[in-house]
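Hey,
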Amino acid sequence: QVQLVESGGGLVQAGGSLRLSCAASGRAFGSYTMAWFCQAPGKEREFVAVSRGLDETTYYADSKKGRFTISRDNAKNTVYLQMNSLQPEDTAVYYCAAAPALLSTSRITNTREYRYWGPGTQVTVSA
C-alpha cells in the first residue's frame, strides 16, 4: 500500500511560480511511475506531467510544456512539480498519482492506470 500526500499549493499572481511536493510512503518508490494531474471546477481530471519509474523519462501535457518541470528524489520518496509562468487557466486542484509499473507512453495520461492518489492541493492563480 502506498500513501501520497501533496503540499505546496496556494494562491499566486499570474506569472508567478509554485513548487508542489508529493511525499510517498512504501517501498520501491524508484520503480513507480509518478504523475501529476489537475482538475478544474466542472472539468475532468487531466494529465499534467509524469516521471516514469526506473528510467525517469518525463513527459508533459502540451499546455504545460516549457513552464512545468517534474522531478523526483528517490532517496526521499518525493516527487516535485515546479510550476513557472503560472496563468489563471492553471487554477485547479493538483493531484499526485502513482503506478507500480513502468507505463508505456500510450498509457501515461490515463487516470485509470494509476493505482494510488493523493488528496490533492489547491493552486489558484489570480489575474
